Amino acid sequence: MQQYRRITAFLVAWLLASGTALAETRIGVLYPESAPALLQLYQAIINGMSKAGEVQVQGRAVSERTSPEEVIAWAQERRNQVTVALGDIPPALTERLAADAPLIYGASALNDNARPGVSLAASPAQMFDRLRQIKPEVERIFVLYRPQSSGWLIAAARTAARQQGLELAAIACEDAQQAGAAFTRVLQQARPGTDAIWLTLDPVVPLNQLLPVLLRESWDKHLVLISNNPVDVAKGALFALYPDYPAMGRQLAERAKRQAVRPTLSGPEASEHLRGAFNTRTASHLGIVPSERVLRGFDRTFPEEQR
Amino acid sequence: MRAHLIALYGRLGVRQSLALIIVPITLIGALAIGLVAAASSTDEVARHHVRAGEQMTATLAQRSDLPLLYESSVGIAEIANSLFDNPLVREIRVVGKNGKLLFGRTQGKKESWRYPTPLADETAANEQDDVWLFSRRVSTARPTAVDPEMPEAALLGSMGDEVLGEVQLALSKESLFNARRSIFFGNLFIALAFSLASVAATLLLLRRFSTPLESLADTMHEVRAGHWVESELPTGPREIREIAESYQALMATLRQREEQLREFNEDLEERIRLRTQALQAANKELEAFSYSASHDLRAPLRAIDGFGKALLEDYGPSLDPTAKTYLHRICAGASRMSDLIDDMLKLSRITRYEMQVADVDMSEMAEAIAAVLQERHPEHRVDFRVTPGMVVRADRNMLRIALENLLENAWKYTGKVAAAQVEFGLVHQQHETVYVLRDNGAGFDMRFADKLFGAFQRLHGKEFEGTGIGLAIVQRVVIRHGGHIWADAEVDKGATFYFTLPD
User: Fold this and answer.
1) CB-neighbour burial class of residue B386 (10 A; exposed 0-12, middle 13-18, buried 19+)
2) What is the structure's pLDDT at A110?
3) Helix, strand, coil: what percent of chain B each, to 5?
4) Percent share of chain B, pLDDT over 90
């Protein structure tokens, strides 16, 4: 009798495990061979993906030398249902994989309105909500973008701005020269104390060339400068929201599961799980005295971390 | 030409020979090293200029991004003019992404250079005959270095870039040419100075070897010329001093031996002189004896023969046959004695005769002698064959005596042969010419061959007339000419005489 119970218990456990296994989404993750610092970030994302429910995640590094056949064989061997391409994967690989199974992208800006995946761009709703908390006087937000790249982000931003009662002055630019000229006009038009400039990850904005000018002008004109990159905050922007990579990994895994069920799902989504950086010196210059609650919402402060 | 050069080289001394080899090698080696060093230095200069050009281009690109962004040449002029402070900068161009020239300035003659196409964030470079050309793309790309304080920002910075335009810079190679000239002549001067110093050192070193050798050679030359020179030991390397010491010891030994030899020669000369005197005295005595003997012996012989014939003529009819026979035999005996005396004189003359050597046609001489013999003995027909053209170096008179004796013997001993044959020729044997006289006459018993050339030795008794002195005379003649004679025969089958007459 005891033996019969043991056998029954084993069978039930096995059935449950099989069922679970059948319910799990098998995700293959490709990431580029890179410097150790970037590899750590990719690994953090993969670890985050693994912590999402009902997924089996396996990562693999690829390079320019990796052949599509190798990767396809690997995916088939693992019976991957979805492939996630992190960072800058050679198009020769992603195009072949996308032909066989759903493929989504992560760990990049996803400057393509049709590209499925989770972008490094922070959620506009959270950006504007944080802005409201820190500087409620802001009424208008300027942003420059290339429609083909960041149209999806600006569409979400318009919705978020409306919800927050903000005016979104989104200026479309086709190239860096247009963006440069547009910023000149913005700086001429901007109203001190009530206007903000939002720096996204769209490469149409030549930040390497314009950031010093923007920082100087926004300092002089008491404009609020918000960003997607904590490096900009270290240089003088008021605050930035950027992805929490492990959490972004979970978001990617959820998107992968949805993609597996609906392969035609297209378009990027912004990162919802974010970390923050805040510049207290800039805040002081702008007359902002953030509460403790606001400061606790940021993971890093500049010029120095004083936690 | 090659033989001439070898002969010329053989006449050179040690110092010249070594110098002829070492000096050119040193010069060529120094020159080669100088050229290699010059080439290497020139390459380094070129690399330095290329690096400088790349740095200037990178600086220009870095400062040109905003002007290109705003398509304004204002900011470019300042940086470009500062770069033109370098006199080697020939041209600077800043071109927008649509090919629009935002800034362009050329120093010197304007050329249409083809700038290389830049790749990514690297400076592209190529060169033409007189310039290096650099170009670099200007883009909006942010630096990709990972900030260790903010590793989380590593992904956020590399979101792609936009091309703003291109900067181009032309750098003159004039300094390279100048450097090349300076380096070349500098290295050439150093190489030549080094070569001259090396050559001078080499020649000084060679002197250390060649001077003692030359001194030794001079001493040897004097000795060879017969002048014994007492010279000091030459200074120099140990081996050369040892050679000189050994040579001096050798020379001392040679002088000692030479002295001994001279004394020995003097002693020998004295002995020869004494023996020559004795020999001359003996010859004189012999000649006196021969003359006296022949003269003193002939007189009684003439008396014997004369009175014997007188008796036969005057009292012949009154003498009985026995008495006549006795008288004939007395006359015959006297005549024979006279012949013997004549032959002895001949033999002694051959020994004392002073030879006068010249080329003699032995073939002609033999034919002449044969003709005389034929005429003398017309009843005895001899088939005489002689090889023509046998010319020898000999005393004509002595050779005639020898041939006369040999041919007379051949005629005599073929006297009883119906078809007498006599042949005179030559054969070549072992580096010498052997003359051969062959007849088919009586021959002789080889058991008595050792007596053949003895004086007054006869192997045929009364069968054939003769005094037995002919072959002794022939042998004496051949020996005096430095040759040798031998014979080979068989009884009643003929005889063959062989003799040599060395040149």
Assistant:
1) buried
2) 80
3) 60, 15, 25
4) 34
Chain A hits for B162, Cβ within 8 Å: 175-176, 203-204, 206
Name the 3-class secondary structure at A197. Answer: strand
CA B317 from centre of chain = 91
**Confidence check: pLDDT of A13 > 70:** no
| Complex ipTM more than 0.95, yes or no | no
Q: Does A88 touch chain B (CB under 8 A)?
A: yes
Residues A34 and A147 in one domain: no
Q: Both A159 and A298 in a single domain?
A: yes
Q: Is residue A127 part of a domain?
A: yes
Closest CA to B23 of B198, B171, B186, B174: B198
**How confident is the model over A130-187, as pLDDT tens digits?**
999 999 999 999 999 999 999 999 999 999 999 999 999 999 999 999 999 999 999 9
Task: Quote the domain boundaries for residue A219.
Answer: 121-243+274-302
Has residue A139 been placed in a domain?
A: yes
Q: Distance (Å) from the C-alpha of residue A166 to the closest C-alpha of chain B?
A: 26
Tally of domains in chain A:
2
Residue A114 sits in the same domain as residue A172: no
- Which position has the higher pLDDT, B435 or B295? B435
Q: Where are the domains of chain B?
A: 1-141+160-226, 237-352, 354-500
Q: A115-119, B185-189, B343-347: which range is least confident on average? A: B343-347
**Per-residue pLDDT averaged across B93-110, rounded?**
89
Q: Which CATH code is given to the segment(s) B354-500?
A: 3.30.565.10
Q: Answer whether A179's CB lies under 8 Å from A206's CB.
A: yes
Banded model confidence at residue B423, pLDDT cuts 50, 70, 90: very high
CB contact under 8 A, B140 and A207: yes
* DSSP three-state, residue A172: strand
CB atoms B140 and A108 under 8 Å: no
pLDDT digits (tens, 9 = 90+) for A79-134: 889 999 999 888 888 888 888 889 999 988 887 888 899 999 999 999 999 999 99
- A 215-254: CB under 8 A from B: 228-231, 234, 242, 245
CATH code of A192's domain: 3.40.50.2300
Does domain B1-141+160-226 fall under CATH 3.30.450.20? My reply is yes
Answering whether pTM is above 0.80, one says: no
Which of B70, B154, B164 comes nearest A38 by C-beta? B154
Nearest to B359 by CA among B389, B384, B403: B389
Torsion angle, CA of A101/A102/A107/A109, rounded to 10 degrees? 120
